[in-house]
């Protein structure tokens, strides 16, 4: 009898929200049975290899394919001219621009795609790519975005040189993409003009790359007889890709199937549509056989999905007590040669306007100018919603700069400026309504845990001895869960998400969602949400996503949007089922709906708990003739969820570093991360996400950069040069949490995976700069490699024994 | 193109024969000719360790081993870990300690940890971090991987003592 179990036993059996349920995904991965795109092998499949430009900016005078075609195993060589008859040599980007699939007359960045060699295997394809002879005429390149708008600057994009708008408002120069601003410029300027204290700092977020362990790739298979295209690909947003492919190819969207499969990490790299995917699709349409394209690591770092390259200027105006009266942030954004950034149409600078952070700042203005350069295009995001890291980095750096100017403690200045718990929901000067927060509680908990006062005393002692110790604080507010369709769309498609749940007669269920896991553990956590809502064991709830033939339309997994949007859709779809279940229960128990109460996994009659129908009983009944008059059979529901607002997770981080002033070596002694993501669905998975995000933050702050020389040549695009921390360098992480539920999310949850990245980066820089603060240093640009930190020591003359 | 060569080796206890170009890398032979897609390709430059396999009792990155070098060798890949349906202690520990997220590095990580624990059955945390430094993970921050290797070491030691 189910009634013999206690309520608690029944609840535990569900493994619902709040339990550290072990992951369902693991079973295949620990056995080597994952199905990543390069594992897919279709009959007759050819391998495609890219011929890439050695120059950052050059005209293509001729392409000679004859030697390549003579290589044994090579089947075909495609260039832009071959794609022109089907009008597929250019493609739309998710940023409203167009991008060359294969270079059309000129190349605009080093390693740009020029030709696509198809061969029987990857060795023959590589041989063929080496044998393609391209004659180039090199042109002067623009690498520094500050030079892009010079009157005599070389025109990078001749294809759009005469267009006065490329999707985001008027252009002022052939290399100008857009200018976007927000806030009250005049009001802000007025406060600055009369403020007792102002601070200003130039702050760079260097070009970096998300670098998931699996590179991008696809297998495209066009069935000529049925007119159907199937593409297995590394995509974080399969439905959006399907729409782009339909727009581009003219194939009806109903005949296109995009399959995500298992994805070896994304971090923003796998949102955009890349030339390699399209080249493979076109090649399959042309040849009628499946085509595989897999990016090499060097191609990955060099050509797909860079992030940042944001050249910012931060300014704050405050009173003498450090209370911020106004904020003015500007940024010059280097978008590379094509504007492929993944952005909501109305938000070309993404969510940069979250830059007021956790603080009550009465006046604010921000402006972003985006330009073309001869560098690779990209998605621009790296484990953060578009431009959120840049925004949070600016405010969390600038509040420290202000603290140093006024000689106020860096924790104290935050207390003085926080949006207070009773002020929520709080609308910022730049227009976002922060849903919930309790910033000071989070900060005080962190300070207490690390004995902040003790650390400051120790720092004072060390400074007296000439040693460098830094304490970094970051009290960030994130913005995730894009998003409300009235402000968020890509190519016109609203950024809602979806869940379709079908409950089987025996009480198991299958749920399909519009998102796409790349390691986040959706198959585990979505089932927990549904388990709690429906009272069915999560073990019996199957989750599917990523196959566009099966799942309902959604915008995918990026910007920590899965829990805020699709997670909400799951809860609401489950509630629709529960509403129907209540009617069935009332019918079966012969009572009114109002006489029933929900209890863990069943409806029971109020005051008579033994009279009950479990959700499993109801699932079976829903498939019989014993239903209320006129009720449809079955127990399923679909929800397309358009969130009323973004969610605003937050945290209080603290980092302690010790710096060797003779070598510049910076050791992270301690990192304490307190996160608040509202309701916690699976604490084990949340903690894992925090560990990973902090490690990526550590990588960005302490070592990552994609550098170029003045001709646009890459100076470090393999894992030999590009810093991915190993287990040795990676610090040990201490995690903590508070819970401040989102008032508008059905289960009160917010996104979490990006918080540690967004909040971690400024925390590291704040710690490094704090180590030098007593010597008058207010800012140091990333990455804080030993060499660069040593240069700071040298500039201060403290590096000599 | 050089003449193809026949190569025979033992893969997870079974004799296999392949015919390959002399330049063919072991990772490609394993993945494309022998359908062992557990080991992955993450960088092609020996940095990431996703392709780690165990070759004659040593961890090697199979993206920098030629298949023709494997004549007569004994190879262990992630596919050879579970015995008679029973998971190896490392596989179980990776699951229980949440030591994986996207799963792409996992086969290489487990294979490397296997050899590490053969060489040093009771490693300290620092020894694990050092011993696993040839394998990159972008998702977990390594903390739970270290934990999993520690739990597996304990379990394996207990089994050995019993």
Q: Which descriptors would you attach to this protein?
A:
heterodimer, A: 801 residues, alpha+beta, Aldehyde Oxidoreductase, domain 4, Aldehyde Oxidoreductase, domain 3, 3 domains, 19 helices, B: 162 residues, Ubiquitin-like (UB roll), DNA polymerase, domain 1, 5 helices
**Level-2 CATH architecture of the largest domain in chain A:** 2-Layer Sandwich
Question: What's the β-strand tally of chain B?
Answer: 5
Terminal Cα span of chain B: 55 Å
Give, in order, the helices and strands of chain B.
EEHEEEHHHH
Number of helices of chain B: 5
Radius of gyration of chain A: 28 Å
Helix- and strand-based class of chain B?
alpha+beta
Named CATH topology of the largest domain in chain B: Ubiquitin-like (UB roll)
Q: Give the class-level CATH name of the largest domain in chain B.
A: Alpha Beta
Give the largest interface pair and sizes: A-B, 58 and 59 residues
Question: How many E strands of chain A?
Answer: 32
User: Biggest sheet of chain B, open or closed, and with what strands and sense?
Assistant: 5 strands, mixed
Strand-residue proportion of chain A: 15-25%
Binned, the helix content of chain B reads 25-40%
In CATH, the homologous superfamily of the largest domain in chain B goes by the name Beta-grasp domain
Helical proportion of chain A, percent range: 25-40%
